[in-house]
Design a protein that fits this description.
- It contains 15 helices and 15 strands.
- Strands 3-2-1-4-10-6-11-9-15 form a 9-stranded mixed beta sheet, sandwiched between helices.
- Helix 11 runs parallel beside helix 13 and helix 12 runs antiparallel to helix 13 (about 320-335).
- It is an alpha/beta fold.
- The protein has helices at about 15-25, 45-50, 70-80, 100-110, 150-155, 175-185, 195-205, 225-230, 240-250, 260-275, 285-295, 300-315, 320-335, 365-380, 405-410; strands at about 5-10, 35-40, 60, 85-90, 95, 115, 120-125, 135-140, 145-150, 170-175, 210-215, 220, 350, 355-360, 385-390.
């Protein structure tokens, strides 16, 4: 049987310093039927030179020739490939050793169009919050979970399930047949400023089921370049977020303009998908959405105050002003108390679920080293003998509970 053709797309823009290490994790893969497509969004640094310096015939370089939004660059990258499966990997992320071989075997064994998984979390030494630099978190689970896509979509809209636990194309393995279904129906795969979130919704809407592994196959990196991190931590650094807002935010007052909250970006994407996708969608639970948004701003009273007027108007628009006021009052009452992000425990912690390690104690200084470290901790992959099934009552995968105050927020989990 011929091994499936797999393409790992690495979209990038002026991040040559982290891209080089991301590509190290890709070229370490021994899988032969692999293409690594670096889609350079018209970078002005030495990105092209970094790619050209790597002697691996599986690497291909593409450049649209003009500056695009992040979503349009991802769309352009998808149009450039010919593969059976595709995965999008961030330019500060990484693949674990033998990940592609392991995923190809899973794809051949199980009749699922999409495989996704828990991620190792790694904060680069350049991370915006100095307290979490070189932080590494390795999930230790090894379950396979069969997920009904319509149930996952419903739960994402109700904020019972994170979009990263849906069939998101980012750090997942997706059949190109699913991608083509979305393109045939909607014309585009990525139609919001957060293409990873949008893809989770779009792909859930064209599949019956997908497979989730609590054992990780990739590293989710967070560096000084990370636009998402900057967007949810404008109290520390807003440079990447400013650029993201300039190029991606709409001209109208909507959730895309709310800073300091990852859930605001998710709500904006849910609303856009409901309008743009040519399919029926669940209703957004706006009451829960505003509670989540304000919870994200716990410990950032100035950011909450800056956003208050706009959030009030949005709450009025969606008929949940009383819910918003109660949540905002709760946030104010918590101001001055110990924030969930007010301290960082620098101890290495091992639990049944997770290993937390600080990279400077294990010679970790980049995502390639973090991937090797996680690979050694996890060992060779042995797929579990049975599948679990996802239900709200008995969820066996939700985000891995961190043993570090605030880490879930910082890492965008």
């Amino acid at each position: 049987m011929t091994s499936p053709r797999i393409c790992v797309i690495v979209p990038t823009r002026e991040r040559a310093d982290t891209l080089a290490f991301t590509l190290q994790t890709c070229t370490r893969q021994e899988y032969a039927n692999l293409e690594i497509l670096v889609c350079d969004n018209c970078s002005q640094d030495n990105t092209a030179d970094v790619v050209a310096s790597i002697a691996d015939q599986r690497i291909r370089y593409a450049n649209p020739g003009r500056r695009l939004s992040m979503a349009d660059n991802w769309e352009y990258a998808i149009s450039q490939i010919d593969a059976d499966y595709v995965s999008i990997l961030g330019d500060d992320d990484g693949l674990l050793p033998n990940a592609i071989d392991d995923l190809a075997r899973l794809a051949e064994k199980h009749d699922y169009p999409i495989l996704t998984w828990s991620k190792v979390e790694y904060c680069w030494p350049s991370y915006v919050d100095p307290r979490l630099r070189n932080f590494t978190s390795v999930p230790l689970g090894n379950k396979l979970v069969s997920v009904k896509s319509s149930l996952a979509l419903k739960h994402i809209y109700k904020f019972l399930l994170g979009y990263r636990n849906g069939p998101c194309i980012y750090n997942s393995l997706v059949s190109m047949k699913c991608v083509e279904q979305v393109l045939d129906r909607d014309g585009k795969l990525f139609q919001s400023a957060c293409p990873d979130v949008y893809s989770s919704l779009a792909l859930a809407s064209v599949t019956d089921k997908y497979l989730f592994s609590t054992r990780p196959f990739s590293v989710n990196g967070a560096s000084a370049h990370s636009g998402g991190t900057s967007h949810v931590r404008p109290d520390i650094s807003s440079q990447a977020s400013d650029l993201f807002q300039k190029e991606s935010a709409s001209g109208t007052e909507d959730f895309s303009r709310v800073r300091g909250s990852v859930h605001a970006a998710v709500v904006d994407t849910l609303a856009k998908f409901s309008v743009l996708a040519k399919t029926a969608t669940p209703a957004v639970d706006y009451g829960k959405a505003f509670k989540k948004i304000l919870q994200d701003m716990n410990g950032m009273p100035e950011i909450a105050a800056d956003n208050r007027g706009m959030l009030e108007r949005l709450a009025d628009r969606h008929g949940v002003r009383r819910v918003f006021e109660a949540a905002y009052l709760k946030l104010q009452n918590e101001t001055g108390q110990a924030s969930r992000r007010s301290k960082v425990d620098t101890a290495n912690v091992l639990s049944a679920d997770n290993l937390i390690a600080w990279g400077d104690r294990f010679d970790i200084a980049d995502v390639a080293a973090a991937a090797l470290f996680a690979g050694k901790i996890l060992g060779s992959y042995a797929p579990p003998a049975k599948l679990n099934r996802y239900s709200l009552a008995g969820r066996v995968f939700t985000r891995i509970a961190q043993r570090l105050d605030g880490s879930a927020y910082y890492l965008g989990m």
